[in-house]
Design a protein that fits this description.
The complex is a heterodimer. Chain A is α/β, with parallel strands linked by helices. Chain A has ten helices and seven strands. Chain A has one domain: Thiamin diphosphate (ThDP)-binding fold, Pyr/PP domains (Rossmann fold, 3-Layer(aba) Sandwich). Chain A has a five-stranded parallel sheet with strand order 1-2-3-7-6, with helices on both faces. A two-stranded antiparallel ribbon of chain A has the order 4-5. Chain B is of the alpha/beta class. Chain B has two domains: 158 residues, Thiamin diphosphate (ThDP)-binding fold, Pyr/PP domains (Rossmann fold), CATH 3.40.50; 127 residues, Rossmann fold (3-Layer(aba) Sandwich). Chain B is 41% helix and 20% strand. Chain B contains 13 helices and twelve strands. Chain B has a seven-stranded mixed sheet, sandwiched between helices. In chain B, helix 1 packs parallel to helix 8. The chains are: A alpha/beta, B alpha/beta. At the A-B interface, helix 5 and helix 6 of A face helix 3 and helix 5 of B.
Chain lengths: 273, 311
């Protein structure tokens, strides 16, 4: 897929995510839209995966540390063919649904790790990367974390471990959209100097526009050239990216579009088909 | 199988012996290699030893990631640093996905902590884990049983917690005796006046109390409970059914551990009187044996409780 096609696909996944929140009447659309472009590049360009064999030992893996962004994860997995026919009604967060409020590895094909309790993704992904090295596999492990999430102490335990074990098969994206549940990251905790902190922990760092498909692709290629260090790609993102009424408005951290807003989404994101 | 003394060395030996035939076994250390007496394991299998530093939550998360890739990580360190500090990681990222991670918690109970005091004595671990689905909980009674418990844990699917001690436990079991997967082993049958159930490293004290009671004409039976909240309590129920009264003894808070487990089984199946000996407060620093005596685990106090219960 070329850049234009990936960009179009990212918007389609955004629409699927909004649709599942709208129909399920619950969920976190803002965080989901923030990482749509990263997810698109991973699942439709960069990750070595086989939707027909989701447990393939040699596959690349993703730990969606900011698990509340899962509508975009479910949209990507559906579009990629993990569920056979594309899912039209996800029944997000409904009783008995395979699409839980946060990702669950034993309920949803393609989900490599249960997640959603913030802070844990990097340490878990480090474990997967350690396993890859131990088993002499050449897969990559990816994780997507939020910038607010980095306030969790456990993040830095994982960041320490990854550097100590020179996990150059680990690539972490930080969705730096500047917001967290209660407000802006800076208002909450002061600084949001993500890149500098990772550098201090001896990671290879890059900082890009997280909505620039080519930049995301290039950053992954660059990270794969690094040896003896884990890589972080700090992605400057816009929470709610792609929808005029949602962009950079933290009220959409969690929320359900009205009928009117749903119609606007269909128009702005190019429909659901 | 080499010689070992105490539950920590037993753990390390079990790891070494298991790894000899299974290269999927790894040890994840939150700076616990020395505490777990596992230095030799790391020397023999350097690639299978993963150090994460003083970071228990990170150790459990790392183990979860490793287990999700088909390997069998073991996390061993102080019982409370696992079950309290890393409780959520044990629950959400290991138990919920039902991953093959073995946890070994040392310094459990008052006897485990010895002079360290409350910060390093852990008598809540079983109560915490008994609330988390999918966990198998092993409470071996001495070093030999700990060796077999670790081997058994590594052979099981799903998360297992093995409760270990400080290394100062008295040996009771013969090394040839396997870890009972029935959850109970009857060790002494003087009579039917009382069933004395012991769990963990107080077994020598319980056996002494039974002997003392026998000398004064009170005939009790002593059994060791080594699996809590197991899937198949049938054998425990069979043993219990032969008695009118039970006294439980455990180096754990009276809530959430073996006494609570037996009370539940009794209530649900065959109601009868259960008297629990265990902790009801925090402990303190002091030599292990003096501490245990002071906090109610002396053979004399166990005997007194039995006498009182029979009145």
């Amino acid at each position: 897929m070329n850049t234009a096609e990936l960009k179009q696909l990212a918007n389609h996944l955004r629409m699927v995510a909004v649709d599942m929140v709208y129909k399920g009447k619950d969920g976190h659309p803002g965080p989901a839209l923030s990482i749509a472009d990263i997810m698109t590049v991973l699942y439709f360009d960069k990750m070595r995966i086989d939707p027909e064999n989701p447990d393939w030992e040699d596959r690349d893996r993703l730990v969606l540390s900011k698990g509340h962004a899962c509508p975009i994860y479910y949209a990507a997995l559906s579009e990629r063919g993990y569920f056979g026919e594309k899912v039209t009604d996800f029944k997000l967060r409904a009783l008995k649904s395979r699409f839980q409020g946060h990702p669950v590895m034993n309920k949803t094909k393609g989900v490599d790790m249960t997640s959603g309790s913030l802070g844990n993704g990097i340490a878990i992904a480090s474990g997967m990367a350690i396993a890859g090295k131990y088993k002499k596999k050449d897969y990559y492990v990816y994780s997507i974390v939020g910038d607010g999430e980095l306030q969790e102490g456990i993040c830095w335990e994982g960041i320490n471990t990854a550097a100590a074990h020179k996990l150059d098969n680990l690539i972490v994206f930080v969705d730096k959209n500047g917001w967290q549940s209660g407000g802006s990251v800076e208002d909450t905790i002061g600084t949001n100097n993500v890149r500098e902190r990772f550098e201090a922990f001896n990671w290879h760092t890059q900082e890009i526009d997280g909505h620039d498909i080519d930049a995301v692709k290039q950053a992954i290629d660059e990270a794969k050239k690094v040896t003896n260090k884990p890589s972080v790609i700090v992605c400057n993102c816009v929470k709610g990216k792609g929808l005029s009424f949602m962009e950079d408005d933290n009220a959409w951290h969690k929320g359900v579009p009205s009928d009117e807003q749903y119609q606007m989404a269909l128009k702005e994101l190019g429909g659901i088909q | 199988m080499a010689n070992f003394k105490g539950t920590r060395e037993a753990f390390a030996q079990a790891m070494i012996d298991a790894a000899e035939k299974d290269n999927s076994i790894m040890f994840i250390s939150p700076d616990s290699l020395k505490a777990m007496r596992a230095t030799k394991f790391a020397e023999l299998y350097p690639d299978a030893y993963i150090e994460v530093g003083i970071a228990e939550q990170g150790a459990v998360d790392t183990a979860a990631g490793i287990a999700a890739c088909g390997l069998k990580p073991v996390v061993g360190t102080y019982a409370g640093f696992l079950t309290m500090r890393a409780c959520e990681q044990m629950r959400t990222f290991v138990a919920y996905p039902n991953l093959n991670v073995t946890f070994v918690g040392i310094n459990s109970g008052l006897l485990g902590g010895e002079r360290e005091g409350v910060t390093h004595q852990f008598y809540e671990d079983l109560g915490i884990l008994s609330n988390i689905p999918n966990f198998t909980i092993f409470t071996p009674a001495d070093a030999a049983q700990t060796y077999h418990a670790v081997r058994a844990a590594l052979a099981l699917d799903g998360p297992v917690y093995v409760r270990a001690g400080s290394g100062r436990e008295n040996d009771i079991f013969d090394l040839a005796t396997p870890f009972s997967m029935e959850g109970i082993t009857v060790l002494k049958e003087y009579g039917k006046d009382m069933l004395l159930l012991s769990s963990g490293f107080v077994l020598d004290r319980v056996l002494k109390a039974a002997k003392d009671l026998e000398a004064e004409g009170i005939h009790v039976t002593v059994a060791d409970i080594n699996i809590l909240y197991g899937k198949n309590p049938q054998k425990i129920l069979e043993v219990i059914s032969g008695f009118e009264q039970i006294v439980t003894v455990e180096d754990h808070n009276v809530n959430g551990g073996m006494g609570a487990y037996i009370s539940k089984l009794v209530c649900e199946n065959e109601p009868k009187k259960v008297t629990r000996i265990g902790l009801t407060s925090f402990g303190e620093s002091g030599p292990a044996k003096e501490l245990a005596d002071y906090y109610g685990f002396s053979p004399e106090n166990i005997s007194n409780v039995v006498r009182g219960s029979l009145k």
